[in-house]
Amino acid sequence: MCEPEDVSQEVWSRWILDAIRKIRSQKQRPSVERICHAIRQHHNYHEDVVAEHLEAAVKLGAVLKVFNKGQSSYKDPGGLQNRTLRIEKGCDLSKVVGKAVRELGERDGSSLKAIEKYVRQSHTVLENPDHDLKTALRLGAKRAVNRGLVIQDGKAFKYNYINQSPGRKRLELAHLRKPPVEEFEMVQPRVSYAKDR
DNA sequence: CAATGCGCACCCG
DNA sequence: CGGGTGCGCATTG
Known about the structure:
two-stranded antiparallel ribbon, DNA-binding
């Protein structure tokens, strides 16, 4: 077990990524707790310190924080880096926006800024001066709102959990319908409390 | 008790 | 369908 020395964030990121890989190989959720635990098996840091560096790694983009099934998970961005997103004329990113908002899982919604960051972390983005991601996302978000994929709240976009597309009879409806103001639903990410047992 | 292994249900594309 | 995820429980150290 190593002494708590002052190591670089790169080293921390490596440790964290290793921990995540290990936990995943055990078919378990790479939660904060498990990541802390895994790292503490080899390094003598307090879990708060580990969590702190995990947080930093997320901010740096070295680690991806994903909201899934009611809780946060962490993953290696490298694993999905081959996911390519081409930004070209007339491409529709509404689904990308929806997915990003859902996986970011921010209670008060996510800003375009946050969405952009998330997309860049989870994809290899191919863009050019004419068609940049930022613009495409702005349009995508707008379309996502119109499609009911997300709900806009000021500058933030929230995932619309109520949304369901039974069929393709939307074309006509979307054409004629245009609610002036979006209504607010007390949407919650249906957290399941598996406390007891 | 901690660590690891894994069947399988559950999304989501 | 096919691939990723991770719960819940079994197994091992």
